[in-house]
Design a protein that fits this description.
Layout: H1 5-19, H2 46-64, H3 73-76, H4 86-99
Length: about 100
């Protein structure tokens, strides 16, 4: 079963809402592929980000049958972190899925 970027973005947003990080409270702008996940103005601290990554990996596996590891050495060594925004994480996940 294949999965596209829009579906991955939706999965990530769903998982962000499930975790409901404190930084999400009071945000009137909603969530989109531009939403910052980590770093300056990000929704998550490092522990929250780990929880999100695990949840997103499982959601991708459930939705597509593809097993991906988002928090690997490759992700950590990129000059632009795949964890900076919803869209960046979706792009990284899609790249890993296409490589499988």
């Amino acid at each position: 079963m294949s999965i596209d970027r829009e579906q991955i973005v939706a999965l990530i947003i769903e998982k962000v809402r499930d975790i409901d990080p404190p930084a999400l409270a009071g945000r009137a702008d909603g969530l989109s592929d531009q939403t910052r996940l980590f770093g300056k103005e990000g929704l998550f601290d490092s522990l929250g980000l780990v929880a999100l990554i695990v949840d997103v990996e499982q959601a991708i596996a459930d939705a597509s049958g593809a097993s991906v590891t988002l928090g690997d050495d490759r992700a950590m060594s990129q000059s632009h972190s795949p964890f900076r925004s919803v869209g960046a994480l979706a792009d990284y996940a899609l790249m890993l899925i296409s490589e499988n």
